[in-house]
Amino acid sequence: MRGLLRGGSAAALCLLLFLVPSGAPAQLTSADIAGSVQDAQGLAVAGTRLQAINEKTGQHFATQTNRAVTEAVTVTSELPPVDTQTGTLATLVDERRVVDLPLNGRNVLSLAALTPGISRVAAPIGPSFGQQSISVNGNRGNATNIMLDGASMYYAHRGAGTTQPPPDAVQEVKIATNGVEAEFKRGAAAITTITRGGTNAFHGSLWNYLRNDALDARSFFAPRVSKLRYNQFGAAGGGPIRRNKAFFFASYQGLRNPSDRLASSAFPPTAAERGGDFSNTIGRRPNDPLTNQPFPNATIPRSRMDPVALKLLDRVPLPNRPNGNYVIQVPVPTNGKMFMGRVDYDFTSADRTTVRYFIDNPENENPFPNGSNVDGYGRSTLGDRSQNTTVSHVRTFSPSVVMTLRASYGRFRYYNTNLVRDTLASLGSKFIVAGGPGSVPLIAVAGRFTGGAEREGARVSDTYELGGAVSWFRGRHEIKFGADVQKFRFFFGNADRSNGEFTFDGTSTGNALADFILGQPVEMWQQSFKDNDTRHYAPGFFIQDRWRATRKLTLSLGFRWDIITPWRMVNSSAFSLVPGAKSQFIAAAPAGILYDRDPGYPHKFDGVNPAPRFGFAYDVFGDGRTSVRGAYGLSYVPLIGQMANQNAQPFGFDVRTRNVGPLSDPYRFTDNPFGRPVDLNNPVYSLPIAMAGSWAEETATPYVQNFNLTIEQQIAPDTALQISYVGSLGRHEGTVRQQNPAVYIPGRSTAQNTESRRIYAPTFGAITGYAADGNGSYNALQIQVSRRFQKGLTYAAHYTFSKAIDEASRADAANNWNLQDPFDRRNNRALSDLHRAHRFVSSWVWELPFWRQQKSFVAKILGGWQFAGIATLSDGAPVTVTAGRDNSLTGAGNNRPDVLGDPNLSSDRPRVEKLQRYFDTSKFVRNQPGFYGNAARNILTAPGLIEFDLSMGKHFAITETRRIEFRWDAFNAFNRPTFNAPGANLNASGTFGRITGAGSGRIMQGALRFEF
Question: Band of the pLDDT at 19, cuts 50, 70, 90?
């Protein structure tokens, strides 16, 4: 961008900061022009005129003046290395680094890992119902607001983001981790991706990225190098539709990836065990549950084996390792296509409209559905489709007033289909599939294997947004105010647990596999086919004033207010346990049930959500080289869609019971409600009533307070050092607990009579209750050195020393994240799952300084080389040791064992010893009946990460505007194993304390690009 400064004896820049209307809607990063007009003596000159011209599109922007025109100066688009304008902590990844850094899978959201405070980045490129989850400064993934051109890319199921266009279609990515200003709505951090637009010149690129396993190294535990035939190809380009008036940009990327997937954690039954011989088994030899004495010769008679269990066992492979392990690499072909199109149109010099559409649709086959670690038991196909459409309009009323309007619609649809149609019923069981086409049940045999089928169907998240903002520049104030409204829909239309899920943990015989062969599960969970449609709205408004109080001091004062309506079912089919309450919606409902339209329903309207924001920046010496800055902000994180999406009787049924019969007749001891018609006039309730999503108390909207104090110093031209204290406090965070635990009766309590001992028995069974009562904290020292791209080199490196503490680390109500003790939330308070004490990340792009101009023949051959890379060193994640069984006999789940001393072993041991016994397993014993274990949550730390991703490329200049690039990327270039966490289930003796999995070995990738 070039600016023409005209006026009097002006020698530099007019002080100006305003939104450049280049199609950027509200909540985007904006182009800032900052400076001052001075005369030859350095005195300020008032009443000047600044005209900014975007030479690529012909746009003009100006401030009004009352002085004569005399001269012009050039304004560059470069930002100063030291931020003297805001208290926000943010990293801007420009177009150069987006394209040139080695990104595994070319997912631009993985660039978030280059920012201090990022502890977890889950950014898949294939189908995933979890999608893009990025945790910032100790906060949960749903507290990160991921946007594309200002539109929320939100998946309401668990609050994650959705995919983004390929790097070639992206102008820049801005990651704001602390001190976000009031215009930003949901969450404590914001990741904003801005797409590229067309210009008056045609420009673009074509690419093909190739991988072949012949060049790769095997994963540490894999028997061979995984098959890899990876091809990621595409094109992007744009130009004028009408010069200085209308422009287009479009991109397409395809993916063909018929690669292997490794599974290495199963210990399936041996041939002897399948015949009943447990004389050489993993763990203890089984007792006969009829006599509580060992089976003679440790052998289960054939006549005692459950016939349905044996048929399911035919689908489970034999071990293929001497130690009883099963390790397999199975092809998992993945195909995908991604398209983005954008049009910008200038109706007048003061009006620009932008329309942008984006879609991503990957699909694959899955031999390991729903947590399976053996192939062949079940198989499925799955995919997801992410779409977003955004229309924005920018109106410049005057040089000091700019208005932005934006409307957007986003949809994420995750879908899956089972390829196996055997069911428990077809295998001979007295079982009814609770909806859908049916498939094999999920079988979880503790410490041995898991087999399952997909929860077939679709999960759909729709996001509607409408917003507007006005920027008003008056004197020393830049005032921005606006309003927006979001509507969220989450539709859960799938089989869920309609095929049944059965857990075997050794309760009957002392050996989980023997329990399975006898067909004796400790728990059964079955649900009706889900056809649940939930909605909620979130209107809000904000005002923000960036005030240049003095020449050195800038203050940012903001305030935001969001009104958050509760999630509501379209047909009112959500309910909650409220002891003693009586429903008005369905008068025949048992006492203790309230529906979401009943007065007193705990998930309520929340209209009081004030969110102040404050920041400052002080230019210490007035030369732009040293700044002290900081910020404080309060941000709300609305509850996710999963919480309010459930089966409520009598609309549907949810049976979770420990009073379960054998696999051949699982409803022998309890009512089977499935198959009954729904009649609200004469409803029939099946007792005991289980709830997968009750509310343990009245809800409050979770919020995060974040703050920082930063010192920044220019240490070399274009290079800055930043040192920050960063803090974050989470309040009203979601926790999950068993709302109806069983009362322990000494000498009379067993797993089989759990249901009759529950507090609200016999009417109610297991109740998964959600509460917004958790707290979390994060404190960190963050140090960063960064150099913007100059003279062929850009780099950034950061180190974070931090501590994160919480009581639960996930936003969802997954059944395996319950509190151990439902009545003692603080019993779970410990290091967060997101805690990483030490983390260092460095990235760089370096054009080697040899014959860059490539004018001679020798220069064309030897010049044009580029070296880029990302280096990551990080501590491992905390690990919680679990009992693996309900030893407390309370039906609460998530028991932890007792710990007898320090379980940590020396880190100086040989690798083979660490893999076989990562921690001292003898220090853990079963918790006593009626008591929860004394082992703290997250008592151990998993292995850390050291990884280098490197890239070397060669540019061949064809003309001044055209070039070809050959590029070679190496991910995990030094082939250093990244080991998984050790087995931490005390009841899984085969894997307890052992490390059985690792990340990928070195993967090589070649690329050919053409740029014009």
Answer: very low
